[in-house]
Amino acid sequence: MNLWKVEQNKLQEIQKNRLDSEDRLENWIAEDSNILGLDILIIGKQVVTSFGGRIDLLAIKSDGELVLLELKKDR
Question: How many folded domains does the chain comprise?
Answer without folding.
Answer: 1
